[in-house]
Amino acid sequence: MPIPSECRYTETHEWLDLDGDIVTLGITQYAADELTDVTYVEMKPEKSTILPGEPIGEVESVKTTSDIMSPVGGEIVAVNQRAVEEPSLLNSDPFGEGWLIKIRTADPSPLDGLMDHETYDKRFPVAG
Amino acid sequence: MSSVASNTLSRTPFHEFHVDNGARMVEFAGWEMPMLYRSIIEEHCQVRTSGGFFDVSHMGRLRFTGPDACRFLDRVCTRQIHGMADDQCRYSIVCNEHGGCRDDVLVYRFGPDEYLMVCNAANRTKLLEHFDAVRGDLDAEWRDETARTAMIAVQGPKVMDLIGDVAPDVASLKRFRFVRKSIMGADVLISRTGYTGEDGVEVIMPATMAVQSVSLLMSTIGGADSPVKPAGLGARDTLRMESAMALYGHEITEQIDPLSAGLTFAVKLDKGDDGPEEGAFIGQEALKKIAETGPDRSLAGLVLEGRRTPRQGMIVNADGAEIGVVTSGCLSPTLGRPIAMAYLDSARREPGSAVEVLLGAKKVTAEVVGLPFYKR
């Protein structure tokens, strides 16, 4: 399970955790709170090839629908089927059981341009 | 709706209560309101199975007085106000000349010369301007009491029993009736009304009494396993959708008439026909014409396949041609299926018909159904 303090963060509220050449991606607690109750998760299928900055899926909540973007390109090696079946995991445990997707990337360098935990947390503090 | 980033918004007397209870506050029609406390779906189910408490103080409260108050209300309301009993509430539409909806309102009769109107927060100023413009020579006055009062809704299957333990006269109220009580020297109005499809009451009280009343309410019934818990605007919206209640800006707008919206029961097309006592209402002629031919499009229910949420503005197709548009939708917490209200060509809204809803690039199959989706 990724440790929030070691993740990188996008402006669009995805977290990314790099382990070897595998990037795990999910949405932040801030994003989950903003969305309200998540009701639907649809990710591109495993083995799809994605380009950096491309939408890799959609997350729907009671209030809104949001694209999920990946700043890194590569091959989708895993989709969290539990989150697809139980979308409320994105609200209750966005860094743990509510992760979305794993991507094998040959070029993790886009991560360097993202926010670290401290910067993200300052800009988007979680209420309460 | 967006997160609160401004201090120019109005706050209800319950603001502190919301913050203390962990509410996510959002801007709604110029007010800072709780969207949810914990989870919209959880709060929705809480109201369907037990009880929920909503702050609805943002809604407009206008008091009408004077010998012509009734005649004036009959001029602006589609429903007959003359003939209401004391302590009765009546749902009505306020129309424009073209028969479009300026707002939907609840009118309370205190006596022959005194009424209260509850309207939508977003339409309060617009309605006051409209009323000033059409007063004519009628001897009627109105006063905006929104700021000096507070309003809550307590809704759910366990609510009336709980109230019966402390106030039997409230528990024995019929639907759309109210009582006025003096509690600790303050005037409190309790009506058996609501906007969730569940039984329950709405309570109007002086703003100064709000905090005291809610702490009393929560200390009486407010434990962690309490049958009544706070619920936010998010749940209020999904609850009213399941019960197919219209929301201004969605099912009814200045461009949509109440007959198309299925609110025929709230429109007295022959108002004033039988004598000079009342006179016609604004928009009556336009609505009569619509009634003669029947509306081109009218409101219907859709139940969609899959789990995706239909939303306002999505197009509805049948046999490859556009036949309608979605006005509201959600993944129904009670039914576990996506539901939508939609305006469909009147010839194409037969229950059981198969249609398609365009969700972005995808087409989702749906079935036309009768309304409401949920009935207690």
Q: What characteristics describe this protein?
A:
heterodimer; A: 128 residues; OB fold (Dihydrolipoamide Acetyltransferase, E2P); three-stranded antiparallel sheet; 9 strands; 18% helix; B: 376 residues; alpha+beta; Gyrase A, domain 2; Alpha-Beta Plaits; six-stranded mixed sheet; six-stranded antiparallel beta barrel; 9 helices
Walk me through this protein's architecture.
- The complex is a heterodimer of chains A (about 130) and B (about 375).
- Chain A has one domain: RNA polymerase II/Efflux pump adaptor protein, barrel-sandwich hybrid domain (OB fold (Dihydrolipoamide Acetyltransferase, E2P), Beta Barrel).
- Chain A is about 20% helix and about 35% strand.
- Chain A is built from four helices and nine strands, in the order E-E-E-H-E-E-E-E-E-H-H-E-H.
- Chain A has helices at about 30-35, 80-85, 90, 115-125; strands spanning about 10, 15-20, 20-25, 40-45, 50, 55-60, 65-70, 75-80, 100-105.
- The model of chain A has no long low-confidence stretch (mean pLDDT about 95).
- By secondary structure, chain B is α+β, with helices and mostly antiparallel strands.
- Chain B has three domains: about 1-50 and about 150-230, 2-Layer Sandwich (Gyrase A, domain 2); about 60-145 and about 255-290, Aminomethyltransferase beta-barrel domains (Alpha-Beta Plaits, 2-Layer Sandwich); about 295-370, Aminomethyltransferase beta-barrel domains (Elongation Factor Tu (Ef-tu), domain 3), CATH 2.40.30.
- Chain B has a six-stranded mixed β-sheet with strand order 11-12-13-10-4-14. A six-stranded antiparallel barrel of chain B has the order 15-18-17-16-19-20.
- In chain B, a hairpin with a 2-residue loop joins strand 7 (about 100-110) and strand 8 (about 115-120).
- In chain B, helix 2 (about 40-50) crosses helix 8 (about 235-240).
- Chain B is globular, with a radius of gyration of 21 Å.
- The model of chain B has no long low-confidence stretch (mean pLDDT about 95).
- The interface of A and B includes residues 34 and 88 of A.
